[in-house]
Amino acid sequence: MEHFFYKLSSGVDVFNSLNELQIYNDSTYFLISAVGDLSMVSFKCPLNKKPIILEKKLEIINLSGYLSSTDNHLHISVSDENCNVLGGHLLSGSIVLKSFDVLIGVIP
């Protein structure tokens, strides 16, 4: 198994950046670990078509899922300043506050 470290800086959209990774047709990428903070998050809860958008300082508690050349499936959990945790299916519009680091595994 191959792996690599990916770092995003302030103002970058997490969802869009992960989807723009060069993914080879015969490989699947999966998230091993992710840490960072967001100024905004956008996610969708199961069975709910309307996205939830939160615009405030949030800590990433968990980010998991996979990316392939034809599909992706990413889930995120975030915590606010009172340790309230929310999450769901990650969408575009999730913006890095200060930093975001992720370790990604590759299955050829």
How would you describe the overall organization of this protein?
The termini are close together. The chain contains 1 helix and 7 strands; from the N terminus they run E-H-E-E-E-E-E-E. With 108 residues, the protein is mainly beta. Helix content is 6%, strand content 61%. The longest helix has 6 residues, at 14-19. Strands 1, 2, 3, 4, 5, 6 and 7 form a 7-stranded antiparallel sheet that branches.
Dominant shape: globular
CA distance, first residue to last residue: 8 Å
How big is the Rg? 13 Å
Helical amount: under 10%
What's the total number of strands? 7
Please give the count of helices.
1
The proportion of strand residues reads over 45%
Q: What structural class should be given to the helix and strand makeup?
A: mainly beta
Uncertain runs with pLDDT below 50, 5 residues or more? none
Mind describing the biggest β-sheet?
Answer: 7 strands, antiparallel
Order of helices and strands: EHEEEEEE
Mean pLDDT: 93
